[in-house]
Amino acid sequence: MAAKQDHFQSALTSNAHWASSTTTDHLTLSKGQSPPLLWIGCSDSRVPESTLLALPPGTIFTHRNIANLVTHTDASLGAVVEYAVGALGVQEVILAGHSGCGGCTAAVGNGKVGLGVGFVDAWLLPLRSVRRGVVERMGLEKWGGLSQADKVKVMVEENVKVGVRTLREMDVVVKAGRERGLRVHGVVYEIGEGRLRELDCGEGVEEGKIREEAFALG
What is the enclosing helix (H) or strand (E) of 64? Predict the structure, then answer.
């Protein structure tokens, strides 16, 4: 029987090699950070933001969760956004979905993930609301005529667009947008191509004013 690979020790060895060979200025990084980007993405192992953006340490402040969900009730996400925007002063926020998202696939398929005590199914529940919104807009007949792959693609894009709208409704984002032009972007990472595709998440001037008036606090 072949010896089981020790992935942890392999990771430590890889880190030691990287630390000794990289041109990264570790001393400068140890003194603080001022990243220009906040990346909110999926926990999927195939979507590592620093790698696919080819950017060095200290450039990206990161939050990742299953299916890159953005909700007003997620305290972990809220704390990340508040700190990144309010304290670190990031200049751009990027919400990234990806092709073949397992969460969107589960929401389309009406199946339970069925692990443990149901944390994953409960977490993915907001995607059911996203799906309902898509079907209401498209109509049942048109939605039913889509292939499974196309349904997942539509869900991936809509999940990002809904998340961008939610991010723009956060008070700290509203204020930073007004005061220093903070922007929120939505993208989809095409795993089979290795490329990011920007989505049209724009809002009209009037729409933006209505949003700011509704969600700004203080």
Answer: strand 60-65
